[in-house]
Amino acid sequence: MGKAYAEHAGSWPYGVEMPVLSLKEQFRLAGIRLMEEQGIGFVESLDFLDFIPGSGGWKESIRLWYTGLEKKEQQLFPGYLLLAHGIV
């Protein structure tokens, strides 16, 4: 939400982004064995809410809710970064 708000307002400072769901095919083409691929950075993604005026209360409420979840439940909310590592 924060990223979309900032992009619409013309205040997104990080340039063009090209989201991907998986790097599996790129790893295969490069001859790298993919060992793990998962979304990370949910809590850090909450900082993007700072682009929305008055969102501080929502940000903190979501952070508290998320940190209260079990690890298995947290994995249902993968975040904005894709971690992929492999072996050559």
Describe this structure in words.
- Helices cover 39% and strands 17% of the residues.
- The protein has 88 residues and is α+β, with helices and mostly antiparallel strands.
- The longest helix is centred in the last third of the chain and has 12 residues, at 56-67.
- The chain is flat.
- It starts with a helix and ends with a strand.
Features:
88 residues; alpha+beta; two-stranded antiparallel sheet; 5 helices; 39% helix; flat
Topology:
Blueprint: H1 2-9, H2 24-29, E1 33-40, H3 42-45, H4 56-67, H5 71-74, E2 81-87
Antiparallel strand pairs: 1-2
Short description:
By secondary structure, this protein is an alpha+beta fold. 39% of the residues lie in helices and 17% in strands.
Element pattern in H and E: HHEHHHE
What is the number of helices?
A: 5
Beta-strand percentage range: 15-25%
List the domain count as a whole number: 1
The share of residues in helices is 25-40%
Gyration radius, in Å: 16 Å
Anisotropy-based shape: flat
Structural class: alpha+beta
What low-confidence regions span 5 or more consecutive residues with pLDDT below 50? none
Give the biggest sheet.
2 strands, antiparallel
Oligomer: single chain
Which strand order do you get reading across the main beta sheet?
Answer: 1-2
What is the CA-CA span between the terminal residues? 37 Å
- The beta-strand count equals 2
Mean pLDDT value: 95
